[in-house]
UniProtKB/TrEMBL annotation:
Coiled coil: none annotated. GO terms for cellular component: cytosolic small ribosomal subunit. One of its GO terms (molecular function) is structural constituent of ribosome. It comes from Blastopirellula marina DSM 3645. This is Small ribosomal subunit protein uS2. It comes from the Bacteria.
Length: 243
């Protein structure tokens, strides 16, 4: 990374507040290598370590995207929901931003059957068939649809298991990490000072509570996915013989 580019990234990271960790009383000692200082009982994360983690994660995700594999974005805390949905959709990848359903990965066949049911409910509610049901049944179908849509809508494009999970707050998303580990799925996570970095394959040390830092993290990783797709498209163009 050139000096000008490096300084620009550092400025961007600092302005987002990504270097602010949790109170020192809440820290996980395994995060010590990523901590720069302590100020007013708050741990300050070493931005140089954040950049290293971010660059490693971006390089890896670009390779995953070039290989045509899926990346599942996961962040169910309130601060992460909008960023997770926006950036996953921008790079054409599935996401979960409401609730992690047990078995999302380890019982994927059941999840696919629920998605089929979601599509069935949409056809019923949007078509002429709805009038055949009683008012009570219509209300019941609408409730079922709203609940399923909230929990499953982001998974519609996940027609196979992902290669990687991109996670905001691995401590909160411990069930997702557990399922990923059991299936050998790589994890990339924005990892705050209260987390265990050993549980993550590619940790990116940073503030996982601030909206701006979460936005920056998800944006950079979505950009990496798009870079991979762009590289594939360019290779495809180069392979087409001139007429």
């Amino acid at each position: 990374m050139k000096d000008g580019s490096a300084n620009s990234v550092i400025k961007e990271l600092v302005e987002s507040g990504i270097h602010y960790g949790h109170r020192t009383s809440r820290w996980n000692p395994k995060m010590a290598p990523y901590i720069y200082a302590k100020k007013n009982q708050i741990h300050i994360i070493d931005v140089r370590e954040t950049i290293r983690g971010l660059l490693r994660a971006k390089k890896y995700l670009t390779q995953v995207s070039e290989g045509g594999s899926l990346v599942l974005f996961v962040g169910t805390k309130r601060q992460a929901g909008a960023s997770i949905e926006r950036e996953a959709e921008r790079c054409g990848m599935p996401f979960i931003n409401e609730r992690w359903l047990g078995g999302t990965l380890t019982n994927f066949r059941t999840i696919r059957s629920r998605l089929t049911r979601l599509e069935e409910l949409e056809r019923i509610l949007e078509g002429d068939e709805l009038s055949k049901y009683s008012k009570k049944m219509q209300s019941s179908l609408a409730r079922e649809y709203r609940k399923m849509y909230r929990n499953l809508n982001g998974l519609r494009t996940m027609n196979r298991l992902p290669e990687t999970l991109v996670i905001v707050d691995p401590k909160k998303e411990k069930n997702a990490i557990r399922e990923a580990h059991s299936l050998g799925i790589t994890t990339v996570a924005l990892t705050d000072t209260d987390c265990d970095p050993d549980e993550i394959d590619l940790p990116v040390p940073g503030n996982d509570d601030g909206i701006r830092s979460i936005e920056l993290f998800t944006k950079h990783l979505a950009d990496a996915v798009l870079d991979g797709k762009h590289n594939v498209a360019m290779k495809g163009k180069d392979a087409v013989p001139a007429s």
